[in-house]
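Students often ask why inverse folding is considered easier than folding. One informal answer: many sequences map to the same fold, so there is more than one right answer. In these notes we will look at a single instance of the problem. The structure comes first.
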């Protein structure tokens, strides 16, 4: 960027991966400029909720707020569950992006949506984005956006399967000739895995741990493959002892952690296998060559690519930037007019 360019107005158009766990924002001509948790902290004053913090600051408050403050996630299973809070969150993120540059007008926004979202859910996303200041809203299917972000040639007559494991859902899409040949999903993702770890620790060790602790355990010690007794390691976990009612720490094994995740992994494998059974023969032949491309934060779970490869007999690859893949793909659709055909006006 030149000295003069720095003071010229820039495009305000953005693409947004509005995820259950994280929101990633792409600005035309600048790339990804924001990636923060989809969390809003609300403070109740005289019976009225007001936004106290959004994103990173709000996530730090999860499980640590006084009675008049609550940290909430306005999206569940990839769709908006609290329209007013989601609107405030989107408005905050747009304002944060607009505050870092000079813009001409209200933004045109592309928002990624799950393949199984209903018209009501899509309308909620449109209303939230419009009320937050968007002049026009477009929707793009998450699997198509993930494919674009993973540099898959979506417009060519070549079948490819994309598996996007997000916080609330796992999206499976088969893409050929610029569109979705098949799309399916299961409401299992990173949040479900965190809940499984929390439930296991409570059931087998009489200890309550928070979402942040469970997420840390999953990231650092979770695996889709259950290790043998010899390969298992000891992990120290801190939480609230239910029997004594005091804070305590215990030791669990990585074998236990993997076993607690096995049901979630099995559901993901099942939806992938079911999708493969439903594709047309010619596209199935293509997938044998192109394999399965994995995106989303859940694809970073250790050995999940190995488990899916063994279950399907197909090559499985993890995208170069799985966490930002969907936002990058939506950004590509924003930047390149030739991809406008994959967008849905609302």
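Output (designed amino acids):
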């Amino acid at each position: 960027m030149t000295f003069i360019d720095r003071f010229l107005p820039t495009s305000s158009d953005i693409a947004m991966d509005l995820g259950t766990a994280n929101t990633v924002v792409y600005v035309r001509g600048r790339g990804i400029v924001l990636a923060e948790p989809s969390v809003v902290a609300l403070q109740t004053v005289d019976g009225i909720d007001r936004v106290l913090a959004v994103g990173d600051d709000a996530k730090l408050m999860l499980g640590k707020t006084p009675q008049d403050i609550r940290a909430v996630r306005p999206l569940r299973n990839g769709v908006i569950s609290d329209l007013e809070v989601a609107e405030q969150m989107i408005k905050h993120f747009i304002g944060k992006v607009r505050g870092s540059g000079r813009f001409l007008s209200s933004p045109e926004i592309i928002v990624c949506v799950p393949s199984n979202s209903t018209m009501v859910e899509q309308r909620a996303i449109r209303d939230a984005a419009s009320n937050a200041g968007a002049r026009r809203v477009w929707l793009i299917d998450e699997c198509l956006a993930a494919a674009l972000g993973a540099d898959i040639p979506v417009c060519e007559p070549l079948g490819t399967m994309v598996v996007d494991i997000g916080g609330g859902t796992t999206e499976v899409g088969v893409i050929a000739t610029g569109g979705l040949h098949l799309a399916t999903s299961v409401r299992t993702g990173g949040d479900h895995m965190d809940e499984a770890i929390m439930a296991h620790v409570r059931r087998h060790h009489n200890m309550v741990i928070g979402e942040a602790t469970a997420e840390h355990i999953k990231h650092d010690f979770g695996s889709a493959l259950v290790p043998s007794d010899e390969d298992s390691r000891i992990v120290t976990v801190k939480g609230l002892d239910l029997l004594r009612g005091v804070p305590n720490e215990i030791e669990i094994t990585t074998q236990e952690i993997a076993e607690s995740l096995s049901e979630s992994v099995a559901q993901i494998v099942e939806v992938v296998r079911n999708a493969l059974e439903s594709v047309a023969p010619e596209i199935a032949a293509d997938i044998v060559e192109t394999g399965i491309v994995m995106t989303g934060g859940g694809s970073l779970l250790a050995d999940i690519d190995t488990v899916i490869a063994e279950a399907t007999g197909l090559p499985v690859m993890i995208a170069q930037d799985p966490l930002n893949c969907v936002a990058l793909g939506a950004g590509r659709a924003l930047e390149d007019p030739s991809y406008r055909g994959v967008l849905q006006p609302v």
